Amino acid sequence: MFTQPGAAYAPPAPAVPVAPPVFDHPPTPEQAAILDAATTSQDLVIEAGAGTGKTSTLKMVAAARPNYRMLYLAYNKAIATDAAASFPHTVQCSTAHSLAFRAVGHQYADRLNGPRVPARQVARILGIPAVLDLGAHALTSVKVARLVMDTVARFCHSAEVEPEMYHVPSVPGLEDPVVMAALRREIVPLALKAWDDLTRVNGSLKFQHDHYLKMWAMHEPTLPGDMIFLDEAQDANPVIAQIVENQAAQKILVGDSSQAIYGWRGAVDAMASFDGARLRLSQSFRFGQRIADEANEWLQLLNAPLRLAGNPAMDSRVERIPAPAAVLCRTNAGAVGQVIAALGAGHRPALVGGGDDIRRLAKACQDLRAGRSTEHPELMAFASWQEVRDYAEHDSGGADLKVLVKLIDSHGPERIMRVVDQLVTEDAADIVVSTAHKAKGREWSTVRLAADFSDPYDPKTGQLISSEAMLTYVAVTRARQALDPFALPGRAGETPTLPSVVNDGLFDTLVPDPEPIATDLPADLIGWLDLAKEAKANKAKWADVENAAVEKIKDHLAARGMEEATVHGRPAVSWKPSKPAITVDVKRLQSERPDIYEAFLTTKTAARPFKILEG
Fold it and tell me: Which InterPro entries match (predicted)?
């Protein structure tokens, strides 16, 4: 078993009387509850909303337990370094990679510092044939080699002991399940062969930091410390989550489940399945109540257990912002469009993360337009630029490429690459552009959201796409003083309402279950959208509207001896476990009233404070 020097777990030494801890500020009631729970030695899961001071809270826990050795596991090295400067000396601040390098990685230092191994060389090392025939599709050995190494990378992030079929990444343009199954059957044995090479000190493939992390994890290490903090637990790689969960020491996981935006690369919300006492931090210190209200609309949409309270000392605003400090986009292509617009307006834009990803994407587009193939993972399955156009226009899986296609067709890849050359550093910029993913953990005084964010509802099924709603929630909560969300779907003008849908009988008569006694919601509740609109105009809190409506619904149904009403046999309105909902039968709406079906799909994002469920 790999262990850190002196890391074998032992219960903490008997407490020595110490002076009461001194905090930078008095704990909030929520922080005080966490401090009390931490002293019981039980494992904790802390749901910490955006800007709620999770790091400060962990520092309080550390200060309150001076006899404990603690380990703070950070998401990246920069966070670990910052934390080390402010945590008490009893806390070791580190990344999992740092621990793994000391235990295992140093043995592979020569390979880590070795030369790059191009995909063509990977193909030769692994014996990949020149062409992989998948029937209607064929992939060159170079493309297969890249998929193999991507599969190994996903395996290293997982908790599995060897590469599995699901580790093979999806390939845009190869959505046919039969084709993908055939591809995965070819890739997995090659990934096993690659992993065998990587575990040898004298192997030939390029060795990466995630490789020694995985080797270390497979030996079930014991982490140093009597108490372990796992920060950003909602985006933990399964391999790290498993290491932490296996520890005998007290564990405290902290994060925001509504910011779990890295599932596409294999991250999991470790908090969801972790067995520990659950507490929360809902008092945001980053922004005032108006931005908190905007964030809470997305939390309501996600059916999250947390709602944010704004900082009473801040008068944040939600308004149109012509010249924001930052513009946040959903896609790289959307970010390029914002950079082009900023340059055209005479600004000096910076792009968070730099322009290398954009340059590589533009180069791939240039190759396809010139009739050459590309190895870029987003475009490698396409034989021509026209195939990319057709895919973006007609395939539901290609919707995120529409902005890219429009940019390339309008400006050309050469101009995109020249635009990248005009970027400046953030220190020299007068406007910062970022994707929402790269903005995570950041904040700016004023933020505008770009128009490339997706509707959080699937246009075909009407079901909520949680990943899209989470990404928008992350973007909304980056602002401190002012937020401009009015380019989001359904937000271009006044907040849309659905009076024709609500009043058209399409919600059906609410019938108690099981007794067939008909009951209708009172008219003032049926017209809740107008009530909410009026409340917004008067700058009232959406939460106040919701709470008032919930009480009326409870009273209305309780008077009839009911706790729940149903539509088509499914729960429609309930206050147990406390979330009321109006249910829309989307299929019936589509068949009986196609004239308003499309309007419903485009406007239902405004259907808050209630959650709309599709049947």
Answer: DNA_helicase_UvrD-like_C (IPR014017), DNA_helicase_UvrD/REP (IPR000212), P-loop_NTPase (IPR027417)
Q: Under CATH, what is the fold of the domain 29-105+216-283?
A: Rossmann fold (3.40.50)
What's the pLDDT at 613?
34
Quick one: pLDDT at residue 358?
A: 86
CB 503: neighbour CB atoms within 10 A?
Answer: 13
Q: Which two tokens stand for residue 209?
A: 């930091």
* pTM score of the predicted model: 0.71
**Using one digit for the tens of pLDDT, what is the confidence trace for 511-545?**
222 222 223 444 434 344 344 444 444 544 444 54
Strands 138-140 and 131-133: antiparallel
Residue 383 burial (10 A CB sphere; 0-12, 13-18, 19+): middle
Residues 405, 409, 413, 416, Cα dihedral to 10°? -80
CB atoms within 10 A of CB 463: 12
Handedness of CA 361, 367, 368, 369 (dihedral sign): positive
Tokens found for residue 210: 């995630």
Burial of 324: CB neighbours in 10 Å, binned 0-12, 13-18, 19+? buried
Token pair recorded at residue 364: 């791939």
- 37: helix, strand or coil: helix
Write down the pLDDT at residue 396: 61
How far, in Å, CA of 362 to CA of 332, rounded? 11
pLDDT tier for residue 158 given thresholds of 50, 70 and 90: very high
pLDDT in tens, 47-59: 999 999 999 999 9
Coil, helix or strand at residue 93: strand
Amino acid at 183: L
How many CA atoms lie within 13 Å of 159's alpha carbon, on the beta-carbon side? Answer: 14
Q: Spell out the alpha helix ranges (H) of 382-439.
A: 385-394, 402-411, 413-421, 436-439
Give the DSSP H or E segment for 556: helix 542-558
End-to-end distance of the chain based on CA atoms, in angstroms? 51
Distance CA 283, CA 280 (A): 9
Return residue ranges of the chain for CATH 3.40.50.300: 29-105+216-283
Identify the CA nearest to 471 among candidates 232, 255, 258: 258
Task: Name the β-bridge partners of 431.
Answer: 349
Q: Which tokens sit at 404?
A: 């890219």
What is the bridge-based pairing of β-strands 250-255 and 277-281? Answer: unpaired
